Amino acid sequence: MKRLWACVVILVLLITICTYGTVETKKVSEQMAQTIESARQAAQAGDLEKAQKLSEKAADDWHNYHEVLCTFMPHAQLEAIDQTLSGLPMLCYFEGMDQFGADCDRGITQIMYLNEAQLPTLENIF
Known about the structure:
It comes from Caproiciproducens faecalis. By secondary structure, the chain is an all-alpha fold.
């Protein structure tokens, strides 16, 4: 009987951790995508200072979330996003607007893919 209770406790613990990981990933990905999109829109409007500040904020926020996300996700995917976001402020500073917009789109796509890959769907399970 003790083994059964131990199994139930472990199962509840695993479900709780997985749910927390999914919710946290969704929250982070939505927030990061919004910040990057705002930076891209500011750059398109010609407000390079605001675009640079937003891209720096996105990179800083990503570094803050990185520790939590490492618990739930493969590091290779996180590093690819880290590399994309780290280059955004300098692209904006040196006025590489075409590349800045492309990297913003790439960053948003990578983050959304990361979010989709963590959802417990049949495609992801099997």
